[in-house]
């Protein structure tokens, strides 16, 4: 909980007014901070706290209780890591020097907390050749500019990953560079030059340019090397693109002393992914004319394999076209042994293990198709393509059907919903009605928002809102949306586990010396229980030979081609051993062998994400290693997956 609400809670516990001096001593903050915090609380709930000659006291105790309860939920996970990102962004990007008190005020914590945070940061930054210094109470970071920018890219990469590929969420890091503005400028130049670029490459490029603009603001300009096309082996066409980009950005940001050479360096990675824009690409019948038969045939193999093995349908025209051109360039780079740099923004292997596993599968298909190994760097960029497509699919699946019940006039209902949906994701408005009786297909409605009183006879989640929306209304709707999504997710998980996990296929602490012994044992049990035939083991071994299915200390063996030819009924066999066994590259404690019929393949992503997310949590993993029976195992997986997702 931030210090504002701690102060509110402290005042609530007192029956007499509390002086500013007592609050300053208790919370180790300045008098100015106390005044600011009280003002912010009164803005949030008018006349909540009275200021008298005797001190501060709560005027509306019921309102105080509501705010304290909400703050407890909202800030229960607001810790050092989140503060660290904000502190670093301020010290790396802000032109104005900040004091510890300035940071404390912004983060609603005490100055003592900031001092402790800075002590931790000093040790972390030393490894990056950066150092925190203090002079006249002002804090700043010193180090080489290239080290600062590299660290900043890592920082923003983490933020981007947390926001699930949403770059606009990191705009608050920038004071000079406007991400949307730069994005628009680059899109216009791409169109003028008849270039096309996939969304993730574009956002990555825009992020590079934004950092360049931000960090060069009013910095002394070094002697600029005369930029020549030959320096980077760019085509004349792309050279013109770089020059135009430099000139347009200089017009908008004249006080930023970046150079043409720096723009060229930022464009190196993007140059491997840009392609000529041609509207005929939209016609899949013409695609082979542009990418060739080899790429076209390989795309067909990839599309079919992703559906057969993971239940993922990528038969999307826009995706296929963009992916095909990326694949064409990828094959050229691999054959010519051109290694593209692995930029920090693409290091998403640990944050999106399922996406990376799929990308790794695609890389194996490409390697087989062209008889040449695909480097891990290229696999990372394949992950980005998949992330874009699957994020769109996920959003459509998770939409919450919403009906607005109110006396609608002058399009007020639509305006209210726009205001709500601009701050809360996943809501999909299906209707606006004037009474509960007018709601059609009530069984298909997930949430009712109403300016009328809640109707207890209607068995659907409801939230009462006012026609003039308040912050409290938004909070109430957000909490209900999160409740519905969590409930939906828990029910889906429960059904998957009931359907696929069997008590007689749960094994612990049986000693094995290597992976093939475990595979043979689990396959034999699946055969004995009539889930698979004797040929099933060959499918498993063939997959492990081509692409090992291990991830950290977890292995998820399954057939490479899930056509169901050797599977009689879907099931998952589980093996757990506190003493890890060498798989291919890693030592594993957990093995989940999947035998899924084609109709159950779409469950694969959920099973993978559940297992990996739970076992990545060290405390939970240790508890599961101690499991000796199936019921405890299931309970630990389900309960801890719920906790991790909520966090």
TrEMBL record:
<keyword id="KW-0804">Transcription</keyword>
<dbReference type="InterPro" id="IPR011608">
    <property type="entry name" value="PRD"/>
</dbReference>
<dbReference type="InterPro" id="IPR036634">
    <property type="entry name" value="PRD_sf"/>
</dbReference>
<dbReference type="InterPro" id="IPR036390">
    <property type="entry name" value="WH_DNA-bd_sf"/>
</dbReference>
<dbReference type="InterPro" id="IPR002178">
    <property type="entry name" value="PTS_EIIA_type-2_dom"/>
</dbReference>
<dbReference type="InterPro" id="IPR016152">
    <property type="entry name" value="PTrfase/Anion_transptr"/>
</dbReference>
<dbReference type="Pfam" id="PF05043">
    <property type="entry name" value="Mga"/>
</dbReference>
<dbReference type="InterPro" id="IPR036388">
    <property type="entry name" value="WH-like_DNA-bd_sf"/>
</dbReference>
<keyword id="KW-0805">Transcription regulation</keyword>
<feature type="domain" description="PRD">
    <location>
        <begin position="290"/>
        <end position="396"/>
    </location>
</feature>
<dbReference type="Pfam" id="PF00874">
    <property type="entry name" value="PRD"/>
</dbReference>
<dbReference type="Pfam" id="PF08279">
    <property type="entry name" value="HTH_11"/>
</dbReference>
<dbReference type="InterPro" id="IPR013196">
    <property type="entry name" value="HTH_11"/>
</dbReference>
<dbReference type="Pfam" id="PF00359">
    <property type="entry name" value="PTS_EIIA_2"/>
</dbReference>
<feature type="domain" description="PTS EIIA type-2">
    <location>
        <begin position="499"/>
        <end position="640"/>
    </location>
</feature>
<protein>
    <submittedName>
        <fullName>Lichenan operon transcriptional antiterminator</fullName>
    </submittedName>
</protein>
<keyword id="KW-0677">Repeat</keyword>
<dbReference type="InterPro" id="IPR050661">
    <property type="entry name" value="BglG_antiterminators"/>
</dbReference>
<dbReference type="InterPro" id="IPR007737">
    <property type="entry name" value="Mga_HTH"/>
</dbReference>
<keyword id="KW-0010">Activator</keyword>
